[in-house]
């Protein structure tokens, strides 16, 4: 796992920018504290910061050069099928100078480019972002893995193209137009992230997951290049009419593929461990690690002083069950400078980012790095097996269409406002959140019942934050920040569960979950691997009907699952069945757990005054985006528990911290 950067001049008579790329590489030192390398070949300069995981010797130093000397490679990531590719390529006459898993990309390109073009990247299994320069063909490739586990950002002008692993590093290059992209910032206010391919800057873009950019230089020096981007993979959602194996056979296949995915990710020449939240997904990874004989598994957990959010006891129970070497820490918000930590996260992302779970992810990464260089995580299980509450809401809303929708919407709205009790127990069972904003979620659910399914799903993905934030905008703010872009399915029919899952793989995973994990872990030089994001496991799960992920079993517990409807359905149905006998029964039946954060309490406690000082500061007022009196009212309403405004408040706070960082040159 590493950091990469590079620059290509389109004028081939111009020598590569060694000094400029060296500056980008220096900004990525945290990603690769063990080694660095930089090479110039004609108009291109490639740089690399190395975190040694596989082949610890100097032979694995990058940039790597092909055996014939014509191609150079810098790669951030791991190629899990490198041994099989090495054997195949070796049989075809390829030779290797190292044991690095990344090196196989060079002969793979040379063997298959002429026949397959950019699709040769589909032969790689792993997490990666790489740049490959073919000096003979004067061709540069930028590639990113299927779901976007590893980031890659770039800027392109008439002069050339520059790229890096992180936006903060890329923005140091003079080719990057750092004018603010107000449309992207408007999307941020809705999604709490800047969705790809945009960034917060007009002149920088994210390479989309599963994509390969091909830059072919012109024959004459200074000639215009040909630039094309190819999408090499996209998850196809299965149909509810698909004839599947029975549930037990499907569960056996899920367990087999999950075990294989974990086995691949045990590839390492250094110690590894696992994040353990106490929930189903991370416990499943730890169970597979123990079952596969990975030695004594090291596990790491972050807890909270607030009991409703603390999961250390459950994580500890899982750790005892599998005999792990377990470490945990509790976040004490009074002792932790939360505002400074949020500022550090803003600098790490290089653009606004307001997922509060970045805080525990950052801190657990810091704790783990003191003991291991690699961790396995449970990320991706929710998107493959329907773990989020909004999937239950989607299924329930589908069942409530028709004549019952209008009166039920009124009743739910009244119940959410506290006027009446909710009469329908299934509604409470489906939408309750353990006391965490139940009324707020009920109101959002009720308000969306009359909407078309894809707009409804869009609203739930955006959440209630944007509506509150829109009420704070000045006239200038409304002018600069238009309505957010719609990221949804491209048809007007009913939105099925599998389509919602595929949309989250396309959007929520790379824009939020995976960039959060990458930047939080790599800030400490820690590599994080996610077995649930294995291609073979994801594709099998996607092909199963929705009722296998969110469904109801017959009373006997056996037989064909029924679709979710008015009666409460079990999430991750096939995954839970797959883990029977491997995990304790109470964990299999437990609620979803993860790295959530008690932001609502923090914004009434240790974050309230710092947030007020920052959001109502002279600089914030001069920006003129939000009405100070409205921001003050929102802070007071949250402090008095009149409204749950922690999410919009974090969104505003992260934005203001990023603005300040830009002004201070961070």
Q: Quick one: overall form?
A: globular
Indicate the radius of gyration in whole angstroms: 25 Å
Count of the domains: 4
Query: Based on the structure given, which CATH architecture of the largest domain is correct?
Result: 4-Layer Sandwich
CATH superfamily of the largest domain: Aminohydrolase, N-terminal nucleophile (Ntn) domain
Count helical runs.
28
Identify the strand order in the major beta sheet.
2-3-1-9-8-10
Terminal CA distance reads 24 Å
Helix content: 40-55%
Structural class: alpha+beta
Task: Explain this structure.
With 666 residues, the protein is α+β, with helices and mostly antiparallel strands. It folds into four domains: 2-152 and 207-231, Glutamine Phosphoribosylpyrophosphate, subunit 1, domain 1 (4-Layer Sandwich), CATH 3.60.20; 247-382 and 499-536, Rossmann fold, CATH 3.40.50.620; 397-494, no CATH class; 599-663, no CATH class. 40% of the residues lie in helices and 15% in strands. The protein starts with a strand and ends with a helix.
Topology:
Blueprint: E1 2-9, H1 18-26, E2 35-41, E3 44-50, E4 64-65, E5 71-79, H2 82-91, H3 105-116, E6 126-134, E7 139-144, E8 153-156, E9 160-164, H4 167-170, H5 182-191, E10 205-206, E11 211-216, E12 226-231, H6 247-264, E13 272-275, H7 280-291, E14 298-304, H8 312-322, E15 325-331, H9 338-349, H10 358-369, E16 374-376, H11 381-385, H12 389-399, H13 405-416, H14 425-431, H15 438-447, H16 453-462, H17 465-470, H18 475-480, H19 497-506, H20 508-522, E17 527-529, H21 535-543, E18 550-552, E19 562-563, E20 570-571, H22 573-578, H23 585-588, H24 599-602, H25 608-615, H26 618-623, H27 628-639, H28 646-663
Helix pairs in contact: 6-21, 7-8, 9-28, 10-20, 12-16, 13-15
